Amino acid sequence: GSLALRALHDSWMTKGMTGIKQPTVEINFGLGGIYVEEDVGNYKRDSLVWGGLPNLFWFANRSNRVAGLYASQVIPAGDPKSIHLAQEFIKDVYQSKQI
Question: Which range of residues forms the domain containing residue 81?
Fold first, then answer.
């Protein structure tokens, strides 16, 4: 991959948003966010994900017909408890659809 894509894989942002420590699968950028090309962390293949201040996370997956938004009012960005809650929420959304 390109230098930019390798930087994306090594980014704290990628680690915080996907819930994985070391990206080993295809993660790329889309026009709206990080595009997950294979199952990774709590995200399923073909997910578009993003997040920001104050610990907001959203995801959408057209092939599985599921989307979600986790919103908090917690600063600083990347708060470990908020990231954990967001990842649990994402996992629960997929489980509720039995995906």
Answer: 3-96
Dmax over CA atoms of the chain, in Å, equals 38
pLDDT at residue number 29: 66
- CA distances 39 to 11, 49, 55, 77, 79, Å, are 18, 13, 23, 25, 24
Q: How confident is the model at residue 35 (pLDDT cuts 50, 70, 90)?
A: confident
Average pLDDT estimate for 6-19: 70
Q: How many domains does the chain have?
A: 1
In terms of Cα–Cα distance, which of 18, 94, 69 is closest to 26? Answer: 18
pLDDT digits (tens, 9 = 90+) for 57-74: 999 999 999 999 999 999
Place of tokens 């907001």: 56
